[in-house]
Each structure stands twice: as C-alpha cells, then as structure tokens.
Amino acid sequence: MTRDQLKDYIGSKYASLMTPLDTGRFDPMFEVKADRLFEVSRALRDDENLKLDFLCNMHATDTRENFEIVYSIASITTKLRLDFKIVMPYQNAEIDSVQEVWPAANWYEREMWELFGINVKNHGNLKRFLLPDDWNQGHPMRKDWDAPDFVRMPEIQ
Amino acid sequence: MSAVRTEEFMVNMGPHHPSTHGVCRLLLTMDGEKVIKIEPYIGYLHRSIEKICENRTYHQCIPILDRFEYVTAMSCNYVFSLAAEKLAQIEVPERAEYLRVIMLELNRIASHLIFFGTTAMDLGALTPFLYALREREYIMDLFEMTCGQRLTYNYIRIGGVSRDIPAEFVPKCREAIKIIDQKVDEYMALLNGNPIWQKRTIGVGYLSPELAVAYGVSGPILRASGVDFDIRRDDPYSIYDRFDFEIPVRPNGDVFDRYMLRLDEIKQSVRIISQALDGLPEGEIKAKVPLKFKPPAGEVYSRIENSRGEMGVYILSDGTEKPVRVKTRGGSYNHLQVLPEFATDILIADLVAIFASFDIIMPEVDR
Amino acid sequence: MNLIPIVAVELQPIFAWIYRWLEGLGLQGTLLTVVVYAGLGVMVFGVLAVLALFLVWWERKIAGHMQQRFGPMRNGWHGWYQTMMDGLKLLQKEDVLVDTRDKVVFFWAPVICFVAAFLAYVVMPFGDGLIVADLNVGILYIMAVTTFTVISLLMAGWGSNNKYALLGGMRSAAQVVSYEVPMVASILTVILFTGSLSMVDIVESQSGLVFNWFVFRLPFGPVAFMIYITAATAEANRTPFDIPEAEQELVAGFNVEYSGMKFAMFFLAEFVNMFTVSAIAVTLFFGGWQGWEFIPSWIWFLGKTFMVVLLLMLFRWTYPRLRVDQLMEFAWKILIPIAFVNLIVAGWMKYAGWYW
Amino acid sequence: MLSIVKGIVELVRGMTITGKHLGKHAVTLQYPEEKWPMPERSRGIVVLLSDKETGALNCTACMLCMRACPTAAITIDAPRGEDKKRQLKVFQLDVGICCFCGLCEEACNFSAIKLATKYEFSTENKEDLVWDMHKLQEVGRDVPYEARPKKKPAPKPESQSQPPQTVNPVAAPESESSEDEKKEGEA
Fold first, then answer.
1. Above 50 in pLDDT, residue D165?
2. In this complex, is the C-beta atom of A78 within 8 Å of any C-beta atom belonging to chain B?
3. Would you say domain B47-366 falls under CATH 3.40.50.1360?
4. HSE of A130, CA atoms in CB hemisphere, 13 A
5. Over the stretch B126-165, which tens digit does the pLDDT of each residue have?
6. For the segment A102-142, what is each residue's pLDDT rounded down to a tens digit?
7. What average pLDDT does chain C have?
8. Coil/strand/helix, residue B107
9. Per-residue pLDDT at C298
C-alpha cells in the first residue's frame, strides 16, 4: 500500500473517526477526537490490512493555544506508517492511556504527564522519572515555562 | 530450619555503577543473588535537548542534536536533516547522498565496535574492549579527516553535507574497512567458541518477538528476536535501495544472538560502504539552502535505522526560522522500558549481561 | 648451631656470623630462637612485599602490552616504581569510614587477610635449603592457613554493612569452600607419590630429569595440574573466578567500602595470594627449585613461579567471568568428579606400581 | 568428556590470540611528549585571524558568527561610528560553552574567525575560559588560512580538497535592513 492508497483506505473506512489533515508533509496525518482515541487505536492495530502494531513515537506539543498529542505508528508486517493527533484545550488536558493497545506508550505517557502536565487516565504508574523527586517548578516543556537560570538565545537586532 | 527468616532487599544499581553505561539507575528488588523486580529511573543525563531546539534555528539544531546520541552522532545529524528536507521538499544531490550513506555506515560500525567491547567488558573480559577501540580509531580518523571532529560531527546538514571528502579519504576508507572486516573474524575466534562466553550468553535473557514489538523494541534487538524488520529496507530512506546487502536475522532472542547479530551487521555495513565507494559520483555536495532556512508550516516525523534501533525526529514548523517543537525518539528509550517486563527472576550477573546486550546509552534515553 | 634454620648454602656463613653476634650480646635459649625467627619473618615479609609490588607492576605491564598499550610509563624506566608511588598515595589518603559499619569486624578484616596471605611462606621452599621452617605437615599447613583469607573476606563483606559488599562476601565464602575440595584432591594425588607432606620432601622426590616433575607423570599428572590451577585461580579470586569482587556486577564486592591503606592491604594480599598459589603449583608439579646447577636454586624457583603467574595473568585478561551458579556447578559437577577419578586412578597405579 | 576437551581447546585458542598481542608494539602514544598530527580540518580552538600584512583583525563586526552560534558563546559589541560603520569594541568567546561546531567559521565572509587545529587550553578557573579579542588574536597569529577574496565569493569550488563554502549567506533570499554589512561584503 502506498501512502496515497493508505490515505484513501482510511478515508473510506474510518471516515467517522479520523479526519485527514494536510499538515503532514511526508506521511499521512489525521486528527482524532480525544474521546475516540482508544477506539481508533484498537481499530488501527487490529485491522487486517493495516496491522499498525508498532508505536514509533508519541509526544505532546504546546502550540500556545492548545496541546497537540501526536502518535506516530507503524507496522512491522505491512510496513505502513501514519501519524494521528489529538488537539485538546490548554486547561485540564487529559487523555486516555493507550497502553493496552501499545504497551510502549507507558513511558511516553509518563514523560508527557511529567513535562507537560497532561493527565493520563488509566495509566497506573504516573510517577516522576525525568525530573527530580522534589520538583515544584511546573512543567518545563510548556512554552510559558520560565526559570531564573533558563537562558534564551540573545536577540540580535 | 524454620527459624531462619529471609527477606528481600533493595539494591540501587546506579546511577554510578560500572555496568550501567552512564547514569542509569536501576532499583533492584533482590532475593539473595536473584533479581525479582527492576525499576529503572532515568533523567540523570537530561539536558532538555528538545527545549533547547525550540529556541534555535534549524541550522543551529544540528550541533545540538549531535549530543542527542553521541555514539552515532552522524545518525542524529542525518535524521534531523532528513526531517527538515521532507518539510521543505529539498532535493539532495547524488554525491551528498552517497557520502551520507558512507558516513552513516561507518558510524554504525563504530557504534557496534563499542557495543562489542563494552559487552565483553561487562561479562568480565577486559581485553576485547581495547581491541574494539583500536579498530574504531580508524573510523574516528576518517571522520576527523573529513569533518574535523571525532565525536560530534555536525557533518550532515540540511540539503547535503558540510564538506566534501579529502582526496585521501577513499583509499584510507577502503583500507580501514578491510582491516575491520578481518578483525571481526578475530573477535569471533576470541569469544564465540569460549565455553565461558557461551555459558554466559546462550539462552540468557530471552526476549519474545511479541513482547519486543509491543514495547517498540527496534533495531538489532528486534532482529535478534526473529522479527525481520529493518527501516533501511522496509521504509527506505536515502539511497539504501540501491545497495545489495542482507539484513541479518537470528531466531533465539538471547544475549548471544544480539551479540552475533551486531557482528554480522558490521560485515554487512562493510559491504554497503565498499559498494558506495565504488559508485561514488562526482558533483555537488549540497543543495542550495538559505542561511535563513524557513520551511513551510507543517509537521513531519522521519525515522532511520540507527545502530540502536529506530531513531526518529518529529518537527513541527510554523513557517518561521525556529521549529515549534522538536521531538527526538531514540531506540534505547524503549529498550530500557522493556527491561523490567522480561528480565525478572534472573541473577544479577545475567542482568548485567542483558543490559550490556541491549546496548543502552543514556543520552538517548534522557535527551 | 642446630638452632639456625635451614638456609641456602651460599648464605650459611652470614647466618652463622649473625648467630654468633647475637650470642655475644647475651641472648640464649628460647629468647635467641624467638629473635632469630622474628628476624627471618621480617626478611620474608620484606621480600614478599617487594615481590607483591613487583607483581602489581608486572600485571599492569602485561595487561597493557596484551591490549597494545604501554601500561604505566611515568615513574622511572617503564614505570618501574609506579606501584610504590601508588602505595604512598594510598598511605596518605583519608581513611573513609562508614558510620554504620561493624567497627571490630571492619577493622580486623584487612589485617587478617594480610597476615593470612603471608603465613603460607613459613613452609615455602624458595631454594635449596632456603626455607624458614621445614614442617613435616607443610602442605597441610598451607591449605589450613590460606583458607583464613575467606574469613577475612566474609568479615569485610559483613562489617561494611553494604549490600554489594555482603553479596561479595557471601560469594567468596561459597566459592572458596567449594574450590578447596578439588584443590585438595589434586594435591592428594601428588602426596600419594611422595609419601610426605613436607614441602622439601615433595620437591626432592621430583629431582633428576625433567620427566620426574609431577606434571609429566602421565596420565594423572597433567590432569591434577589442570585441576589445581583452575581451583587455584578461584582460590586467588582472579578472573574468570573473580565473582567476589566482580567489578561490573558488585562494583568492587567485599572491599567496596574500604579506602586508603586498608584497601591497599586487600590489594597486596590478593597479589601475594596469587604468588602463593603459583609457588605451590611450582613446588608440587614443576620440581620446585630444582634445575641446572649453575643457576642458583632460588632463581629457578622464582622463574618458574613467574611463568605460572604469567599463565594466571593470561587467564585474567582473556576470559570472561563465570556466573555465580555456573561457578558452583563447575566445581561440584565437573571439577570434583574429575579430581576424584584422577585420584583413584593415581592410587591404583601406585598400588600396581605402574609409574616411574 | 568431549565437550570438556573442546572447551579446553577453545580456551587455549583465545589465550593464543591475546598472547600473540603481547609481542606487538603498542598503538597508543605517550600523550604530552608525543602527539598525533592533527588533520588540517580539525576543529580545535576558535581563533580570530589577522591580516597577513597589516596585522589588524579581519573582523568587520558583521555579527554573522554571533548569529550562527548555537550556544551563544560569542559576544560582540560594536557600536556604529560616525561613518555608520561598526567599530569592533568587544569580541568575547566563552570557550567553556563553545561546542566547536564550526558554524561561525562557515558563516564568516571575511576569513576572520576560524577553528584552528590547536587544543590544550585547559585552565584552573572557569573565568579564564572567557577569552577576549586580544587573546583570540594572539592565539590565531600563526594559524595559516586562505584569505577569501573580498570582492565576490568564489563561484564554485572546483577542486575537492579546497573546503567549499557551504552555508553561504549570499544565497539567503531575504534581505533585512540590518544586514547592510553583508551587502557590503558582496559589493
């Protein structure tokens, strides 16, 4: 399946769940509603034609307006690859854990919770592991985070 | 004897333990010599590369990302350049692609040589480490001759490579890969048949293919578990589809297979390099990329096959000079994650062997 | 005159002179014996301390050249007094002590280790007549005192109140106790033919041609030697059997909490132990100090011992380390059966008279 | 029994391999006395180059290197004089945070800054790692370099051995108001 075929396949089969986005510059990119995440993940993994069983990467982005959580997934057998993202508001951000589908999400979700402050439901092991145990200075990967010793690049006129 | 009471105890393995390769901390629950539970704690080498990159231009990100995985810094250079090129749809000149492949494969050999040395050292044999570093020196010399640095190259740039290779590079490179090819046989003679080595590695630390795929394990470890997957072949990037090479796969998923697979990969990399040297065309080494590089808004996740599995970079661009978000993905992150899942009820010596065979390096985990 | 311990023929006049000088000072009877033996003890101690320092340097050089580097090069010609400088440095260092240690046990562990390492040299025949005391239970005495080392390691592991150290101590106890059995069995094979436990008798029974060396008595001689050298490597806690201090697993094992001079004592004792097991191997299997007459006997002894030490060093820098359970398995399932079968074969051949 | 013999054979084989190396000569060097020759392209310490005839700094205070530096190790202070030209007043390099990436050298249009093949500049104080203009110039006095033509950059490097000018700011399509110095270099 080529990238365009994959796009068409998903567009025809999962039209109600995944909306194609045109921001993806290489691999197809879709948007998924936060409450349908678990459903989508399971469908993508169990689909006979896709078998997207390999979670390459998952991370959150702070775009200053809202959080985007991007899942990059691939398949070992069918060699396909696609990304999908969830856009959610800044306040009280919360997602479902996809550990049941891709156990690899465990640490990625933990890191997201730690560095962005996005709560993960049903995670089961939300413990600090990157920052110091006694950290109380907020979530450093957010754009508005600041600290006295945080050096930004000098602005040259 | 019923009066004898035993209890489990916790041992802190790391962050400054000789065999955790840097600053990984494993909290072990042990029953005598037996490890019952492993809890990894990371973050001792956290340099917030992702946050730094948000504050840099695309060109400035490359030297920062050199430090993301310093054992194979060429891959870090490359994967970021690849993502940026995908974003801006840049066509890379032919010669640059060949040079990139040569450098990437040389770096893979260097990394696997380090793996060989440190694994042997963790299992108690100290001499192979020095032998492996001796051969790695040839590759480091080639890199220094080409780009001026031995570890943090900053060589592969957006749109090509920073400098053309010097005239004496090709003969020296041919000589180096020939020596390395011979020395790998010597390594195998030194350790493979050794009954102690076999006892320590064969059958130790079996990782099932299902668990490996579920936890995102990639690269040599995945292939040693019998899963035939290599991004160089299955999601081709650069010009890897032009070369004739094999992807070694081994079925047993134990420490010995992971070790042997990497030595086999060195041989395959040697094949790729010699083909690339033969086919090296003349021409441009860099596409025209402006200093104020502003890719159009969009996002891309690019991934390559590194010596430690899948290495990926995600870039979100809003059309300005600086990326909005750079997310790096290293293989070791997932490899460390899967460790507590299958390495239970083993002896502490086996844990050291498994950890060594995973070839985890901490900058990739902590970033 | 009979009070003078047996010493090398070349040194007899000097010793006689010292003896007379001491008598002239008014020393008599028991006191005289005590003084003479104390003097000898100091001499042996001095010689061995120098030997241990030399061995440390030598091992570093061997390891270096084996790995295609130089090893120590800074102090003197090829760094020949590097070890002395290291010792001086360790002497000056602060003795870092853990608060939660077991004070008595922690203090005495290195001392016992150090003393036990030197005790074996009471009956070691360095050359023709160059022996402190020719006990008639010589080899038995050596086996008895060298086992003291394990007690000290156990003490060090326990007294440090550190989990790594404790694991190391327990490992060493299990290991040394297990490997004692095949070692003694292989030594028994030798004693079967000499009929004496005295070290001097053992050496003299191998006099004559090279083929009289025990290692060349086919078929049991070489087997006994291989078993001995394996067990001895384990006894001396060296790779591939260095699990008590396995650096990559237990950081430094039993001596993880020791620093300064206490650590140096462990360190030196390790090298003295290595020399001890090699010296015993030479005495038992390679004809001890015997060789061509025109070279002094003690040079023969040292030369042969250094060859065996070189073998141990080759082991150390070539082989990976065994796991703790494989180590025990190897001792009990492979070494001990072979050792006993070898002993039975040797006994039978002795009984039947099929030997030369 | 056979496996034991085989094991012993393999052990001896391993020992012969390591034993063989005993006779070979070491591949290492005794560092402070002997040194490897540094390749020409080696990226060592950052130096400021001076003009071969006049001895004055080549730097025109265009701030391109400062802009290119990914770690903000370079600090330049160059107020504009009466003829609207910048006068270089302070050029400071914090060697402690410099990452020796070579981007400043590539950005420079005037052969003014270079990563020389020198190293060994360790100090005991962190403050000594902040190098000022004069020290950078002194260290760079004897560094050989090829002066770039001030008129126009070479069109394309023909020979391979010559380091090509890769990131060429001339190729930048945007021309911003603050980049008058760059245009001056072109003109």
1. no
2. no
3. no
4. 24
5. 888 888 888 898 998 888 888 888 888 888 888 888 888 8
6. 888 888 888 888 888 888 888 888 888 888 888 877 788 88
7. 82
8. helix
9. 78
Q: What is the DSSP string of B333-345?
A: HHHHHHHHHH--S
Query: What gap in Å lies between CA C156 and CA B130, rounded to an integer?
Result: 32
Residue % of chain B over a pLDDT of 90: 1
Q: Letter for the amino acid at B323?
A: P
Q: In sequence order, what DSSP letters do the residues of C199-241 get, joined into one string?
A: HHHHHHTT-SSGGGSGGGSTTHHHHHHHHHHHHHHHHTT-TTS
Query: What separation in angstroms does the CA of C279 have from each of B73, C150, C232?
Result: 52, 19, 11
Rounded Cα distance, B258 and B237, in Å: 25
Say if residues B336 and B44 touch (Cβ distance below 8 Å). Answer: no
pLDDT cut 70: percent of chain D above it:
79
**Tokens representing residue D39 in the block:** 């390749």
Q: Are B300 and B315 in contact (CB under 8 A)?
A: yes
Question: Do C and A touch (≥3 CB pairs < 8 Å)?
Answer: no
Q: How many CB atoms lie within 10 A of CB D13?
A: 14
| d(C-alpha D117, C-alpha B148), whole Å | 9
How many helices (H) and strands (E) chain C has is answered by 14, 0
B touches C, CB cut-off 8 Å, minimum 3 pairs: yes
Q: Using the predicted structure, report yes or no on whether residue D175 has a pLDDT greater than 70.
A: no
pLDDT at B259 over 60: yes
User: Which domains are present in chain A?
Assistant: 3-96 (3.30.460.80)
Report domain extents, chain D. 46-139
Cβ-Cβ contacts under 8 Å for C324 (sequence gap 6 or more): B33, B347, B349, C171, C174, C175, C243
Q: Which residues of A touch B297 (CB under 8 A)?
A: 23
Does the ipTM surpass 0.90? no
Distance (Å) of CA C164 to CA A16, A20, B12, B125:
58, 56, 10, 21
Min Cα distance D15 → chain B (Å) is 8
Put simply, the answer to whether B288 touches D171 (Cβ < 8 Å) is yes
Tell me if C338 sits within 8 A of D7, measured CB to CB. no
Low-confidence ranges of chain A (pLDDT < 70): 150-151, 155-157
User: D46-139, what's its fold?
Assistant: Alpha-Beta Plaits (3.30.70)
CA-based nearest residue in chain C for residue B19: C248
